[in-house]
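Worked example (supplementary).
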Amino acid sequence: MRRRPFHRGFTLLEVLLGLTLAVVVVAGAFAFYRRALEVRELVIQDVEVAGAERAIMDHLTAELRAAQVDAFVSPGMQGTASQIKFGTVVVPGPPAWAVVNATDTPVTPERDLQVVTYELRPTVDDQGNPVLDDQGNPLIDGIERMCQTLVSAVTVASTTGTASTLNPITGTPTTVNPTTGASATGDATVIPSTLVSARMKFLYFRYWDGTQWTEAWSGRGLPAAVEVIMGVDPLPSNVLPADYPYAVFHRVVFLPGGAKPPSGTIVLGLDGELP
Amino acid sequence: MNLVSGIWYLVSEICYLKSEISDLRYQISDTRYQTNGHYRDMPTPWTSRSRCRAAQRPRRKGRRAAVLLEVILALALFVGTSGIVLASLSACVRSAREIRLEAQAADLAVTRLSEIQMGLLPIQDSSAEPFDPPFDAWTWQAATMPVIDNGEDMGLKKIEIVVTQTEQGFVYRLSALLVDQVQAAGTADQASAAAGGGP
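After joint prediction of all chains, the assembly is encoded as:
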């Protein structure tokens, strides 16, 4: 009978030491993994915030620098501490040159003058009521941008309440609220609204009138500059926007269309007025 | 890394102790086998018949070394993998910080350029000056240069805004062409005078 080859087993001490070592290694690996996940989340959040801030600031800067006062249709600028609305010049998109057949669905036309609006979008429930947090502060979805690509004189003539205009596609009259973009018929004249960032919960504007900063601007002209302030945290209740307590992203944008000309010859606009 | 160093030290000590204990047991076993011929009939927890026979064979140092080599390899792989992951995380954190710094620097540079365009600051060279709080960790300076084409002053100035984060050594540059307002005003006055009209 052949004898079984010798195989020395593990002693209890070796097993305990092995288990202890394994537990220590696994615990270290798990702690390392958790820390890596936390760092990853922080990095993603940082990059998203910085990217959103940069995108919004750059887009808003480009549109503010191209802001125009049109003699017929442009409303100039209307701004408050939390909202800004102005006409700006852009290169029309592909729909401006789209060629379609009579049987195709017509595309929404565009022109080179657009009216854009930036403001905070409050969180609303199914009934349209604002949603409040535990402290009674309204929840904010983020910063939204509305762009009215088809601007007509009738539409922009009334900046409050409602205005009636003709739908260039269907030829039917449409009632449009120029502030909210709500359309009674819900057709092509609805102003598109886009949530440009869900990270930003605070938005604050100030306007340079040539001598000082103001929190409101209204009129046909444009301010010389607009100060844009954004923040990640919502504004606490009972706190003024100027006293926002958290870190902010801040930029002052000069508006060439709103600047007063240098001393010397003054060239009046088409309507005989200074912009 | 302290954790990894501690684990490495612990494993080394365990391997060393295990080796010492094994050597000691084999020495005891060999001594008893050689000195006590009746030992086969009195096995102890430390020795057995097979152990005694095994004690006559060459000591299997190769097998222990292989186990130690496996542990060392496993730990080296663990440390290497951890190092790679740490390096990746560090690179991600550094990139995120640079993105944040670049966004902040762009805001500050555009703001300073806008203030120059608004007429709040002159279009001229300036030395490094700090921003107001909370951006006092940043400094800015301006460098201007007249635009000359074919020897003719075009009435424009190229201005470069250099924004620097002093703590982390981050630098951001923004260039723009601005109308030299002094020269533009003089040209406009000359044109008005030539036309016979007042300003």
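Two points are worth noting when inspecting this output. Residues 193 and 199 of chain B are 8 Å apart (CA to CA). The longest strand of chain B covers residues 152-165.
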